[in-house]
Design goal:
Layout lengths: L1 H5 L4 H17 L5 E5 L5 H8 L5 E6 L2 H10 L5 E3 L12 E7 L8 H11 E12 L7 H5 L8 H11 L2 E8 L4 H11 L7 H15 L3 H13 L10 E7 L19 H21 L3 H15 L4
Parallel strand pairs: 1-2, 1-4, 2-3, 4-5
Antiparallel strand pairs: 5-7, 6-7
Length: about 300
């Protein structure tokens, strides 16, 4: 749904796909069977094909219309239409599952995770991304039919309760978080607007950041640094989890959560503030800049 306005080149979606590809390259074999859930326009499948690895790719979606279009564009990729909470795939049939911004659309997200777990072979991995921050639920989430936004502790608990071992847990969009959080809080005042008005506002906001060179540069830097650290906050939660190979498998090697505390954490917050300052300088309305800064400081200090 986001892709209808953003296309293939929105910086946040490109960064999202980069993380997914990195997970497959790091944790799945070069000839792994990979299921992409919620394929939509197929941009994740495109990114995986560009790696040159001999991956066996499967696309899927709940909606049939994007699958018909995708079948014409990627004729060599098998495509499936199903509800993830009632997945028709057999047990232990895939090596990896990618679910980018899928669980928030599903009422019974626990059932969907159980189906991902069941479909994975022992030792298989799941790369899961969801929107972060329940307090930031706004017209964007409502328009895109999100049931919820998540905190990282909530997502970790949900994933581990399903039976997964967590290999890595991080966030995406850490450096853009202050400005993003302020916009999301501002958007909450429009929840009572008509559906058409909200649709126009959401489309406008997505398009306004689709071609931002600054945003693209920040996210490229963030994903590069993210190879060594895990970010403590951001606009999306990202977890890489593994189905244990055996019931007795030690979890000592699991949860490679490269926490970002102390001086690294301070540096991230400083860079986030710097990115917001650059945004002030390179875009228009001074009054909006002052309001954005005030709103961000209020958010960081715990205000409403």
């Amino acid at each position: 749904m986001h892709e209808a306005e953003a296309g293939a080149n929105h910086p946040i979606d490109q960064a999202s796909r980069t993380l997914a590809v990195q997970s497959i390259q790091q944790f799945a074999g070069p000839d792994a069977v990979v299921l992409d859930v919620g394929s939509s326009s197929g941009f994740v499948l495109d990114a995986l094909q560009r790696t040159g690895a001999a991956l066996a790719l499967i696309g899927s979606d709940f909606l049939t219309q994007p699958l018909f279009a995708l079948a014409k564009r990627l004729p060599g990729v098998p495509l499936l239409q199903f509800d993830l909470s009632r997945c028709p795939l057999p047990d232990a049939c895939v090596d990896a599952v990618i679910a980018l911004n899928v669980l928030e659309h599903i009422a019974d997200h626990e059932a969907a995770l159980r189906e991902i777990f069941r479909s994975l072979k022992p030792g298989g991995i799941a790369h899961i991304e969801v929107p972060a921050g329940p307090h930031l639920f706004d017209i964007y989430d409502e328009h895109l039919m999100h049931h919820r936004r998540y905190t990282m502790p909530q997502l970790r608990e949900l994933v581990t309760r399903t039976g997964f071992e967590i290999l890595n847990a991080t966030h995406l969009g850490v450096w853009m978080y202050p400005a993003f959080a302020w916009v999301k809080r501002r958007n909450r005042r429009f929840l009572s607007f008509s559906a058409d008005e909200k649709s126009r506002m959401v489309a406008s906001q997505i398009r306004s950041t689709s071609h931002s060179t600054l945003l693209r540069t920040l996210l490229r830097c963030e994903t590069a640094i993210g190879l060594a650290v895990s970010y403590p906050f951001g606009i999306r939660c990202v977890i890489v989890a593994r189905k244990p190979s055996t019931s007795s498998q030690s979890s000592a090697a699991a949860d490679d959560n490269r926490s970002l505390g102390g001086w690294p954490g301070i540096i991230v917050v400083a860079l986030s503030s710097l990115s917001m300052l650059v945004y002030f300088i390179t875009s228009g309305n001074v009054r909006d800049h002052v309001r954005l800064l005030a709103g961000t400081l209020k958010s960081l200090l715990g205000g409403k």
